[in-house]
Amino acid sequence: MKNIKIYLWIVAAVMVPLLVAGCRKDPEKIVPQRALERWNLLINHSPVKAYEYLSPGYRETHTLDQYVAFIGTARLKWKSVAVASQQCESEVCTVILTVKSTIPAQLMNGELRMSNSKVQ
User: Which residue has the higher pLDDT, 115 or 74?
Assistant: First the structure.
């Protein structure tokens, strides 16, 4: 009986770290995946679901109704999204996305400036 207990402890000592390691999510995969998921929800006109991807801090200061209204006033039509680059350090992953969109012709009277946005 004592040998069985020792055997079970050895198995547990080996298996638990392996199981825990298998449960960890790789930030280099999950961060760009979540960024793409959020933008694809916006492209597919699902701002309510996209709201769930926003940070808790943003959600504390902006209600779902405010966010949906804000997205609803966007005059750009988002067409596609892709990861342009990403860089993960100890606690922060920075993902740069390329979002293709169309602009209604009536908005083209004047200067148009675009800049890259970072998602962290």
Answer: 74
